TrEMBL record, chain A:
Core subunit of the mitochondrial membrane respiratory chain NADH dehydrogenase (Complex I) which catalyzes electron transfer from NADH through the respiratory chain, using ubiquinone as an electron acceptor. Part of the enzyme membrane arm which is embedded in the lipid bilayer and involved in proton translocation. It comes from Nyctibius grandis (Great potoo). The lineage of its organism: Eukaryota, Metazoa, Chordata, Craniata, Vertebrata. Its EC number is 7.1.1.2. This is NADH-ubiquinone oxidoreductase chain 4L. It catalyses: a ubiquinone + NADH + 5 H(+)(in) = a ubiquinol + NAD(+) + 4 H(+)(out). Belongs to the complex I subunit 4L family. It is a multi-pass membrane protein. GO terms for cellular component: mitochondrial inner membrane; NADH dehydrogenase complex; respiratory chain complex; transmembrane transporter complex. InterPro entries: NADH_UbQ_OxRdtase_chain4L/K (IPR001133), NUOK/Mnh_C1-like (IPR039428). GO terms for molecular function: NADH dehydrogenase (ubiquinone) activity; oxidoreductase activity, acting on NAD(P)H.
From TrEMBL, chain B:
It comes from Nyctibius grandis (Great potoo). One of its GO terms (cellular component) is mitochondrial membrane. This is NADH-ubiquinone oxidoreductase chain 6. It is a multi-pass membrane protein. Coiled coil: none annotated. The gene is ND6. It catalyses: a ubiquinone + NADH + 5 H(+)(in) = a ubiquinol + NAD(+) + 4 H(+)(out).
Amino acid sequence: MSGMHLSFYSAFTLSSLGLAFHRTHLISALLCLESMMLSMYIALSAWPVENQVASLTLTPILMLTFSACEASTGLAMLVASTRTHGSDHLHNLNLLQC
Amino acid sequence: MTYFVLFLGLCFVFGGLAVASNPSPYYGVVGLVIASVVGCGWLLSLGVSFVSLVLFMVYLGGMLVVFVYSVSLAADPFPEAWMDWRVVGYGVGFVLVVVVGVVVGGFVEYWKLGVITVDGGGMSSVRLDFSGVAMFYSRGAGMFLAAGWGLLLTLFVVLELVRGLSRGAIRAV
């Protein structure tokens, strides 16, 4: 693994750890998800540069499109949760109590 | 020039660390903005300027703006700061995970650095990524239409999720 690959690989790992250990707010988890999408975008954009193939440039653009869809859906759920419970704290989402 | 690109790569990791160990969503958004600006600079120094500008405008100027005012809707009025002991503990733990992963995985090949750039790829006046994305309209037309259809459906999904008028009381937020 070269130095640049280590950089976005570790950024992806850190963001996924942040998603796993989210603490209080739902929006912190959504921000970690966005950071994972960002590191994947940069990794997919570095691929056509390394292989000098032009058509691989389609992949990051397509990924960004679906990432925008996912981010807007997550934010809509955040707004719905804030309207229902008054805040987006994760301990409000307790229907499946164990 | 190579060292500048390495510095951008390091700042990208620190931005990811700031998002993961955020004390409050305000600081998480700051980390995400820093990471995306540094990522744009990194892609620019690699030569692919089109995907870098797409990242800047769509991600930073579109999606992150929406995140910023959603954070102002949903976050605490009195946030924690960076020097709280819990936040520092999370940050140190994450850095430790990455360092242990690098050491266990073998430190052999990380010194291999190199920065390359792109050329026209056969076309004389545009660079590689311009001509690559232009293939969306010729060879990738099916995927283009599928992505557009997905975006249209997402619009209706979001409208249904935040509808508060006929499915309950009109809420103040």
